[in-house]
Amino acid sequence: MRLDGFGLFVEDMAKMIRFYRDVLGFEIKETDNTSNVYLVKDDTLFLLYGRKDFEKMTNRRYDYIKGLNGHFELALYVDTFDEVDVAFKKVVENGAIPVMEPKLEPWGQKTCYIADPEGNLIEIGSWDKPYEEKDS
Predict the structure, then answer these.
(1) pTM
(2) Is 124:91 a contact under the CB 8 Å cutoff?
């Protein structure tokens, strides 16, 4: 099996589309007036599913945590430490929920955390080198 994409079950589709498209720069692959929205970031498929639509399709009800939640994190990378600071400031000014301001960690990564409008955690980090070199 291959990883095809990553999806979030969302309550307010319009608000979440605006956040991921306008604040984080994800591209919409289709019209934004459907119950399932496909977005792309750096050639990775990112899906937003309407919670009620998914429950109807699977004929089940699910529990959803409200507010900040620690189920997972979505990690975004920038090439330099300075870009971490700039990105954090920009996304918070545009509606992201600040969780942890940028700081240099003991392991050498500069990182910060924000949350989307429904409380899902997003890390913005850097090893102060281009993405292609970060793991070498």
Answers:
(1) 0.91
(2) yes
Strands 36-41 and 97-104: unpaired
Contact at 8 Å (CB) between 120 and 74? Answer: yes
Domain count of the fold of the chain: 2
Rounded Cα gap, residues 57 and 21, in angstroms = 26
Q: What is the pLDDT of residues 116-131, one digit of tens each?
A: 999 999 999 999 999 9
CATH code for the domain in which residue 105 is found: 3.10.180.10
64 falls within a domain? no
CA-based Rg of the chain, rounded to a whole angstrom?
16
Q: Give the pLDDT confidence of 46-60 residue by residue, as tens digits.
A: 999 999 999 999 999
Which residue range(s) make up the domain with 97? 69-133
